[in-house]
Every structure is written in C-alpha cells, then in structure tokens.
Write a structure and sequence with these properties.
The complex is a heterodimer. By secondary structure, chain A is of the alpha+beta class. Chain A is built from eight helices and twelve strands. Chain A is globular, with a radius of gyration of 17 Å. Chain B is of the alpha+beta class. A six-stranded antiparallel beta sheet of chain B has the order 1-2-3-4-6-5, covered by helices on one side. Chain B has a three-stranded antiparallel beta sheet with strand order 7-8-9. In chain B, strands 11-12 form a two-stranded antiparallel sheet. In chain B, a hairpin with a 5-residue loop joins strand 11 (371-374) and strand 12 (380-383). In chain B, helix 9 (268-315) packs antiparallel against helix 10 (322-329) and helix 19 (486-502) runs parallel beside helix 22 (536-565). Chain B is rod-shaped. The chains are: A alpha+beta, B alpha+beta. At the A-B interface, strand 3 and strand 9 of A face strand 10 of B.
Chain lengths: 255, 566
C-alpha cells in the first residue's frame, strides 16, 4: 500500500489569524509504510486558538517520533493506539486549560487524528472536524461532536434545521476548554484506491457533499498536484460563498 | 497592570492579585484610611482592540450595578478611569467560588444546594424585578462565591456581556459558554428571566450531582439516576427549570422560590406518605361502614330471631306462666299482653273463664315485680319487663296498664268493691294521661278508699263529703261514657248502676232522689239506644240491674219519708 498526500489551509475571508493547524507524514516503519495525519481547528478568545491547535499537533508529532517506533515493534492492536492517544488528549486538555487560565482566557481546539497502516485505519475525533473515506462514494467516518448533531441524533431537530441553526458552531467538547475530554475512536480496514480526507468545519459548511465528491473522488486524483489543485478550488469555492472561518483540508490517497 | 503594594487613587493599597479574567484582573486592596478591604477590578485598555466599545459596555454595566443593593450582590463603591486602565472598586467577597468546592469535594450536600438555590433565586428575583429587568445570563458555579458564613454572593456581571458580544459564527465549545439555555444561542432578543431560570437549574444540577451538564452525555438527567438518595422534589424542580421550551419552565424566580421552599412536599416520599395517610383513612372509613353494616345486620337478624322465638312461644302457650317466656324474650313487644290476630294475650287468657281469680292476680302482680330470665351461662337476672316496655314505647305501656286495670275492674272476683277498685287503680294510674276513664276510675278508687278510711274512723262529716265526691265522680263517669264504644259503655254503666245500688242510701243523703233516678233513667235510655245485637244479652242484664237499683233507691226515699214521718 502506497500513499500520496496533500494538505491545504486558508485563513479565509474574515479572520486575522489562521487558527487551524495540520500535519501529514508518510512514515517508513518495520511494519511497512504508514501515514499519519492530524488536523486541529483552534478556537478561543484573544486570538490564541492557534496556540491550542498547534500544541496538539506538536504533541502528536512527538508521539510519532517517540512512541510509534516502539509500538511498531509488535503488531499494533487497536486498544494500544486508543490508550496512547487518549493519554495525549487528556494531557493536552490539561496543559491548554492551564495555559489559558494563566493568560486569563479560555482556548481550545478540535482534533481529528488519523493513522493509516498497511491494513487498518485508526481515527480519533474530538469536535466538529471530520474524516471522510472517498471510494465510489463519499463516506463520513467521524461523527460531529456538536450540539446540533446531538439534537439531530436525539430526534429534536432535522438535518436541514441543524445546518442553518445558530448553534451549529457549538461543540459539545474540545481539547482545552472541557473539564474532561472523551474522544471518539473509529477503526477499520483500509481500502485501496481510496481517498482519506480530513477537513475543518470551514471546509464543508458552504459546499455540498456532491461537490466534494466530484472534485475529490479517487478517479480524478492521481497525483499530488491534482489533489492540491482540486483542494484549492474547493477552498476558493467556499470563500466565494462567504465562508468566514479558516478553511483546511488534508488528503491521503491510497494505491 | 497594577503593582502589588501600589496605591490606587491615593487610598487603596493593592495587597494581592486574586483573580484574572479575559481582559481584567482582580486585586485585593486595603483602604488604609478606613482600614477596610476592597476588591479592585482593573480593566486594561491595552491589548483590547476596541477599548471604547468595551468601555461603553462596562460603563453601562457599572451604571446598572451601582444602583443595585442586595445582600447577595457585591456593591460597587467607586469607578476610576485612568490613562491605561479602568478601575472598579467593589466589595471584597471572602471565600471561594462554588466550582472550586465542586473540584475539591465533588457533589455538594442537597440541603446546602437548596439553601444556595433559595439565595440565588432571591438575587435573580431582585435582578429581574428592576426596571428595566436585568438578566444575569451567566449563572454557573464559578460565578457564585461561597462566603465563610455559608451564604453566597453572585459575582462577575462582566463575563456574560463578553460572551454576548462574541461572534456566533465562531466555533465555541459548550464548556466555555456556561450552561447556556437553548434560546441563548438564538440571539439576545429572546432571552428573558426564564433563561436565568434555566442556567440556575443547570447550576443546581451540577452542584448536587457533581456532573457538569456540559460534559458527556451533555444532558440533564433526572438527578436520582445519578444519586438515588436525592430528593425527588428537587429532581422535579431541576427538570422543570431546564426544560427546552421556556414556557415549560418556572416563569419567574418567585415561582421557583416557592417550589424550592416546598420541595419536600412535591417529593415522592412525601406524596407517598400522604397517599398512605389517605389510604389508611379510606380503609378505616370502609371498615367503619362495614362494621356498621355487619352490626346492623347482626342486630336485625337477632331481632328477627327474637321475634320468631316470641311468636313461636306465644303460639304454643298452655299455661299462663308460658307468657313470661315470651315477655322476657322481648319485653318491648305488647302482643304477649294484648294478644294479636293469631293468639290471645295474657290478659285475655286470664279472663277467658269470665273472672280473674287470685291465681290470675298473682300472675299479673309478678309482671309488676319483674321476671327472672336465665342467660346462656345459667345466671338468672331479673328483668323489669314493664319498665322496659315503658322506655321502649310509652303508649303501649299505658295501654297494657289500662287493659290490666280494666281486667281487674270488671273481672276481679275479690268481692270487696274498694279492694277491686284499689287494685285496678294501681294499674290505671299509669294510664291516666292517655285514658280519661282510667283517671276517673282512679278518682273513684280514691273516694272508696277514703270512705272506707273515714267510716272506720267514724268521721261522718268527712265520710259524707267523700260520698258527695263519689257521687259527683259517678255522675261524671256517666256523662263521659258517651265517648266510648258500646262494649265499654255497657261495662261503665254497669259499674255506675252497681255503685248506685251499693251506696244507694249514702247517695240519697248527699243528693236528691230525683237526681239519682235521673242518672239511672239516662243510663237506661242510652242503653236502649244500643242496637248491637251481640250485646243484647248484656243490655237486658243491665236493664234488670237498673230496675232493681231504681227500686232500691225509691225504697230508700220511702224509708226516709217513713222515718221522717215517724
């Protein structure tokens, strides 16, 4: 299994800082090639959201260097990753809230973290950033931890109502601003000739799943140039439609 | 940034930094002149993009707060506008905020929470009733200071405004916005007093369960699912406070206050207790009714049995004393005395042979003295049967006495007129009220008794006076005899005639012969008018008696004349 990766981010039309942080790495390990990707959408008062998102990205970067090699010495079990990632999340949650308190503010970040091995995908999600698997269709892997998503799940709201509800940006939890963080974990078998896409909420509010699928399906993306170009096109489309948030998208193509 | 130890406004010495907000810091300061501690809140101008906007908000906020005076609110005493900061002097509140208590000790005791809730309700009620109403909008444990005396103070009116002005398109996290009520996401226009009620409900939930409603599962469950020992009354209150639709919540702080003061009453336990009380009451009511019905049924069937027994005994009477058994079975019934369609009463039974002899007399006398009754265990008790009859039915008693009196009067074969009357009168006296004739018999009896007395004592003046009385009574008896039916009339007339015959001489002394003869003639005439064929024999007897008596009276006068002639 081989991987082609791309990562694009844009400050958007309104904000003075880009609070999104992202990172994607293809790693050679004893268990074959792997891809690690993380995308964090920071938020908070006094333009410090980027601190939180960057902090989480760095923490996972450290994990790749310090812990992943050890983990790769034996076959990777789902629970090992889950435990380690949860530990990092809890630690980051504590650090960010302590830092926020010292600065007299509160800040936080969403996080969607993905590890693709030769056989499995491992995804952890906190907040409303998303992971998609694009094969012959667009499949959303993660579930939004937002107020409206929960209302929809509880049957208090329809999907249409949720999309235009004022509360659509209210997260149930995030790293740094919640007392406790309870990440969602998703595991599955990896598919060949598929796109694994992570995006911030800014990327998906104004464009439809059909538009995403049209531009980002595996059949049209064969190299990193095309991937970058199509991602940029969609980001521009978002901006044309008056998306105010930072916009980030990250893709991994398997072949 | 104020330095520790520096003087603000020449009098407030900054002692320590006690808190840090988004763009403000709070210091403990000492007014050295007054030796009193104050809190100094510094809002820094640098680092804030549009300080003028912030300042306007702050000034408006402070203007509101300055007017407030409530024991659970800090009061603002001074506002100082310096070059690089904006300084607010206010009450220094000792103690820690409730979120620290939650962090350290977890869920708080229910009684404390309810006590705090009442105080918060008091504050909210105060704020909501200002004109214009002040909506606090940011109720959460971090904004509630717990003072060392156990009371609370609601602090920090600024943060709510900070949040309010946030761009809603920005991503926010539930934890950072407090226990925002659903309508708080929808723009400020829709928030009202009920928003604070929601936030207070969520705060109480957090305090009493230790679970932050902003953490998974992000919902306010019934509190007893978390801690079953909590009050169901409080559970109801919290659930009602945190309804999604503001119309389903308590509509005012006062309403919530009332509920908090009576939370025990809406408690399941209390309701259960009340229900238990009610069911005990209903059960005892039902039992009472059942007992009444059973005893009534028992009483009625006993009565029925008794009356069955009574009838059976009366139907099988062979000797006069058998009547005693019937009478003691039910002393309140009169059939045993007076008889019924099916059988004779004791009186009729005794006079069936046409006379009342001394044996019969003893049977009737015994009724007066009371009858012995043997109960189940073999003990015998004396029942005063006539008294029982009297208390059960006075009229029947009088009738029985009258009938017995009559039996004596007309059938007693004792011979001595005075004794016959005396015995009869001893019965008639009980029937005087109802039967005028009984009264007359009693009077006659009295006269006869007196006559006997006087004649023995040879008091002739009194004696003749008594005869005078007796004659008057006899005449009266005759005059009143029309009131009675034929049978009784005949008997009365018979008595009158007998009386005249027996006392002809004396009556002639106290009255004129003509008078006496007139009475006899009237009786005779009246007797002839009776057409009842069954009584013809008696009438004939009476007429004969009248004839004999008339002759006797006439002879008395003749004797008198003869004597006078001599």
């Amino acid at each position: 299994m081989n991987f082609i990766v791309s990562a694009n981010t844009d400050i958007g039309t309104t904000k003075s800082t880009n609070q999104d942080s992202l990172s994607v790495k293809v790693i050679n390990t004893p268990q074959g090639r792997m891809t690690f990707a993380i995308l964090c959408d920071g938020m908070g008062g006094l333009e410090k959201g980027e601190v939180a998102s960057a902090s989480v990205v760095k923490a996972f970067d450290n994990w790749i260097h310090n812990d992943l090699p050890t983990l790769c010495e034996t076959p990777i079990e789902d629970y090992m990753l889950k435990n380690q990632w949860e530990k990092i999340t809890t630690e980051q949650n504590r650090l960010i809230s302590v830092y926020g308190a010292s600065q007299g503010t509160r800040m936080g970040t969403t996080a969607v973290v993905m590890l693709l091995t030769q056989t499995r995908y491992y995804i952890m999600n906190i907040g409303d950033s998303r992971a998609y698997e694009i094969t012959d269709c667009l499949k959303q892997i993660t579930e939004d931890q937002t107020f409206v998503a929960r209302e929809v799940a509880l049957g208090n709201m329809t999907q249409e109502q949720a999309e235009c509800d004022e509360r659509r940006s209210v997260l149930l939890q995030c790293i740094g601003a919640s007392d406790e963080v309870y990440p969602d974990m998703f595991f599955g078998d990896i598919k060949e000739n598929a796109i694994y896409m992570l995006c911030s909420d800014g990327f998906r509010h104004e464009i439809t799943p059909d538009e995403i699928y049209e531009k980002l399906q595996p059949n049209v993306l064969f190299d990193d140039n095309t991937m970058n170009r199509h991602a940029t096109e969609l980001i521009e489309l978002n901006k044309q439609r008056y998306e105010r948030d930072n916009i980030s998208v990250l893709m991994v193509r398997t072949f | 940034m104020l330095e520790i130890g520096s003087l603000v406004d020449g009098k407030y010495k900054i002692l320590n930094k006690v808190g840090q907000g988004g763009m403000s810091a709070v210091y403990l300061a000492m007014n050295e002149k007054a030796n009193k501690q104050w809190a100094v809140k510094e809002v820094r101008k640098d680092g804030v993009k549009d300080f003028e906007i912030v300042k306007q908000g702050l000034v408006a906020e402070i203007e509101i707060l300055k007017k407030l005076s409530h024991p659970y609110l800090p009061s603002i005493v001074d506002v100082i506008d310096t070059d690089d900061s904006f300084i607010i002097i206010m009450d220094y509140i000792q103690g820690n905020s409730l979120n620290i208590a939650l962090e350290e000790y977890g869920a708080q005791p229910q009684e404390y929470v309810i006590n705090w809730a009442k105080q918060l309700c008091d504050v909210l009620g105060y704020l909501h009733t200002r004109t214009p109403a002040i909506i606090y909008r940011d109720m959460k444990p971090a904004n509630i200071m717990l003072k060392p005396d156990g009371n609370i103070t609601l602090i920090d009116f600024g943060t709510a405004r900070e949040f309010k002005e946030k761009n809603l398109a920005d991503t926010t996290c539930l934890g950072t916005v407090g226990y925002a009520a659903p309508e708080q996401f929808g723009g400020m226009g829709q928030t009202d007093a009920r928003t604070d009620i929601y936030c207070l409900g969520a705060t109480l939930y957090h305090l009493v369960t230790g679970k932050n409603p902003c953490e998974p599962p992000y919902e306010i469950k019934p509190i007893r699912e978390i801690n079953p020992s909590l009050s169901s009354g409080l559970e109801r209150i919290i659930l009602k406070c945190t309804q999604r639709d503001p119309n389903d919540r308590y509509q005012s702080a006062a309403e919530l206050m009332y509920a908090l003061e009576h939370y025990e009453e809406i408690d399941d336990k209390y309701r259960k207790k009340q229900k238990q009380k009610l069911s005990i009451f209903i059960t005892s009511c039902v039992l009472t009714v059942a007992c009444v019905i059973i005893s009534l049924w028992g009483f009625l069937s006993a009565e029925k049995k008794k009356s069955e027994n009574y009838d059976v005994i009366l139907g099988n009477v062979e000797v006069a004393s058998d009547y005693y058994e019937a009478i003691t079975t039910d002393p309140t019934r009169v059939e045993a005395y007076l008889g019924s369609e099916d059988f004779d009463g004791v009186i009729e039974f005794l006079i069936k042979d046409g006379e009342l002899n001394s044996e019969d007399n003893s049977i009737l006398v015994k009724l007066k003295g009371g009858l012995d009754k043997t109960d189940n265990r073999g003990y015998s008790t004396t029942i005063n049967v006539l008294e029982e009859l009297k208390s059960a039915n006075l009229e029947n008693y009088q009738r029985v006495c009258y009938e017995i009196g009559e039996a004596y009067l007309f059938y007693y074969n004792i011979g001595v007129e005075k004794d016959k009357y005396a015995t009869a009168a001893s019965w008639f006296q009980y029937a005087r009220d109802k039967y005028p004739v009984a009264s007359m018999y009693c009077d006659i009896s009295d006269c006869l008794t007196n006559i006997s007395k006087f004649s023995k004592a040879e008091q002739y003046a009194n004696l003749y006076q008594e005869y005078q009385n007796l004659w008057e009574k006899v005449k009266k008896l005759q005059t009143n005899s029309d009131l009675y039916d034929d049978d009784l009339k005949l008997r009365i007339w018979n008595e009158i005639v007998n009386m005249i015959r027996n006392n002809a001489t004396e009556f002639c002394e106290v009255s004129s012969q003509t008078d006496i003869l007139n009475v006899l003639a009237t009786v005779s005439t009246n007797a002839n008018q009776i057409t009842n064929t069954f009584l013809q024999e008696n009438i004939t007897k009476l007429q004969n008696n009248i004839d004999v008596t008339t002759t006797k009276v006439q002879s008395v006068t003749k004797d008198k004349i003869n004597q006078g002639g001599v």
